[in-house]
Specification:
binds zinc ion; eleven-stranded mixed β-sheet; Rossmann fold; 6 helices; alpha/beta
Length: 261
């Protein structure tokens, strides 16, 4: 039995695409999650939605309780997570409005709790391939079928925020091999892996960050405008991809067991 978790923001707070909708309150050992889970069904698949930044988008990226969000989805029985995020582009060819399905991350966060295991249980989980390849391939195939402009691989750099990058930082991220930059993927994907949940990301490029000499540096308004224009593409891929997801035993499910010390 599969259950799909969806973590996102704009465009997913209105559950009109779901039937049997209800909200579910969850307590977790790590405190409260960003908002009550929105649970429902579509295509006969059970869905649980977390609004990462809360109902009114008031929770800044460093303050998101990533552990509570992932714990709540695990507790709800979620087997696969499709996350969405806005991101800045570090590459000319990743234009605003394009989607990227990252296969790697580089962690530039500083103050986030990035493991469930803080007590006596030490866990060194493999992060060589952090995103679920099976789930990624389903998203890529769906984007191809729906003719949505996308990039099938990419390295996402997650910064602490809430400020945007300097030009020098933005240029450095390019040298390091980053393709896009955002503020939310780490530790979300790390915790999903610890929880044994398949996790894939649809990142929407909204701007050229700060490196691009001929483009104006990113502003929040720029991000919001591009998100509004392109959120339907993300939704389309999400819903068309759902019926293709199956419960095949994936290494994401078992990785954590071999990581216990
Ligand atoms: Zn997987």
């Amino acid at each position: 039995m599969i259950k799909i978790g969806m973590i996102g923001g704009s465009g997913f707070d209105d559950p009109d695409f779901l039937t049997d909708v209800r909200t579910v309150k969850k307590g977790t050992p790590f405190g409260g999650l960003s908002a009550d889970l929105i649970v429902g069904k579509t295509h006969d698949v059970e869905i649980a939605i977390v609004l990462r930044h809360g109902r009114q988008h008031r929770i800044r990226p460093s303050a998101v309780n990533y552990r509570a969000n992932i714990w709540a989805l695990k507790d709800e029985g979620v087997t696969h997570i499709i996350a969405t995020t806005a991101c800045g582009s570090l590459r000319e060819e990743i234009r605003p409005g394009h989607l990227v399905f990252p296969d790697q991350f580089i962690d530039f966060t500083r103050v986030r709790k990035s493991t469930f295991h803080e007590g006596d249980q030490v866990v060194h989980i493999s992060m060589a391939d952090p995103f679920c390849d099976r789930l990624r391939q389903i998203l890529i195939q769906t984007a191809e079928e729906e003719q949505v402009t996308h990039h099938p691989t990419g390295t996402v750099i997650t910064i602490e925020g809430p400020r945007f990058s300097t030009r020098a930082e933005s240029r450095m991220f390019r040298i390091l091999g980053g393709d896009i930059v955002n503020m939310s993927t780490v530790p979300e994907v790390v915790l999903a892996r610890e929880a044994g949940i398949c996790y894939a990301l649809a990142a929407m490029s909204t701007d050229y960050d700060a490196w691009h000499e001929s483009e104006a540096p990113v502003t929040w308004e720029m991000i919001a405008t591009t998100m509004r224009k392109n959120v339907e593409n993300v939704k389309k891929i999400f819903f068309k991809a759902l019926p293709k997801i199956t419960y095949d035993m994936c290494s994401c499910r078992t990785e954590v067991e071999s990581a216990m010390v």
